[in-house]
Design brief:
15 strands
């Protein structure tokens, strides 16, 4: 039975990023973990997920799989019917499938001692509505991998010698020449003595144990620009994980989450708020106080204003995050119908309705009665 594609197992497309593969693995691992999922087949599914992630999370293994599929890992490399199952080699075998083809076509395997960029870090920050509108500076603490301050990334204890690896002469790669039925083949693989570093040292650094990097808690000041919206990202270049072999550090991505406001709602760069007024204010007009992000302001309500009417306060909205001006505040009027009227107040309203030629409430038909009449 053919094995299922590793990308299909994790539910990600070919070309998925390292972060996408990791997210998919974590989600599926939680779902099918035997301690959580006791359904038949869950344990087998969990094993498949782990196998797929083990291959796709390793750049070198992933490259092999992308090129040769499952055959890259069967019977020493090529699977049945390929080089790994061919008996005519007289016991000759390859440890690295990439070495075979790189040797055939005149190349060498990927150099493992080149500088590598550090991973990006992600941090979710929750801020208030007003902080998002006007911007703010906050200090956060994050754990990250940094260059060891004791050995400065050299991996050796300061004062002890660092030597060029005698097996690979500092290249990090070992070249091997072997005779095969195809003739003489030269292969290249990661140096087993220095693990691709190209150097050796007698005494590893006592602080990082020869890793060249250490884990630290780091306080970082983050400037959140005015006008940032929920879900947007602030990227701090070089504030992520330290690189290896002299490579640059990754970035720190601040994912901003904005708390909802009790009064205001955001619509693009505009701010919307609902302001209640009385029936009398709506009928006769008035000057009312309206809350804004910068405090209360006076606003005139014209007589005869209907509930739902929107007034615009220019420039009272949110600053565009790219600096392209500022939005407006949209004030939506809500006319509040009075309740618990006294007998005197009810009588006055009936007189008011009578003078306007309006029927009394008790004499008017209900809305549903009017609908019935219209449908007859």
């Amino acid at each position: 039975m053919a094995k299922q594609d590793y990308y299909d197992i994790l539910g990600v497309p070919r070309g998925a990023s390292e972060d996408e593969i990791k997210k998919a693995y974590r989600r599926l691992a939680r779902k099918y973990h035997p301690d959580v999922n006791h359904e038949p087949g869950a344990e087998e599914k969990f094993k498949e997920i782990n196998e797929a992630y083990r291959i796709l999370s390793d750049p070198e293994q992933k490259a092999k799989y992308d090129q040769f599929g499952h055959a890259a890992f069967e019977n020493g490399g090529m699977g049945q019917g390929g080089f790994g199952g061919f008996d005519g080699f007289g016991g000759f075998g390859f440890d690295d499938l990439g070495d075979i083809f790189s040797s055939f076509f005149g190349g060498t395997s990927r150099a493992s001692n080149r500088p590598q960029r550090g991973s990006d870090l992600r941090y979710e920050m929750t801020i208030e509505f007003e902080e998002a509108a006007f911007g703010i500076e906050k200090t956060i603490e994050i754990p990250r991998t940094e260059i060891c301050p004791h050995c400065h990334g050299n991996q050796a204890e300061p004062g002890t010698p660092i030597k060029t690896c005698p097996d690979c002469n500092g290249t990090g790669q070992q070249r091997l020449v072997q005779q095969t039925p195809f003739g003489q083949i030269q292969t290249s693989r990661t140096c087993s003595r220095c693990q691709g570093q190209g150097k050796t040292f007698e005494k590893p650094c006592t602080e990082c144990q020869g890793q060249g990097r250490v884990r630290k808690m780091r306080r970082i000041n983050v400037k959140i620009p005015a006008g940032i919206d929920d879900g947007q990202i602030v990227r701090l270049s070089g504030q992520g994980e330290a690189g290896t072999r002299g490579g640059p550090a990754g970035d720190l991505q601040i994912i901003v989450r904005v708390k909802p406001h009790k009064i205001f709602k955001r619509q693009g760069n505009n701010v919307i708020c609902e302001v209640p007024i009385t029936f009398v204010q709506a009928a006769l007009g008035d000057e009312i106080e309206v809350p804004t992000l910068e405090g209360s302001v006076k606003m005139k309500v014209a007589e005869g204003t209907q509930s739902g009417k929107i007034f615009r306060l220019r420039g009272k909205g949110i600053q565009d995050v790219r600096g392209y001006g500022r939005g407006d505040q949209l004030v939506q009027i809500k006319v509040v119908t009075p309740t618990k009227l006294t007998s005197r107040q009810k009588e006055l309203l009936r007189q008011f309705a009578s003078e306007r030629g309006e029927s009394h409430p008790e004499e008017s038909k209900s809305f549903f009665e009017k609908v019935k009449d219209a449908l007859k």
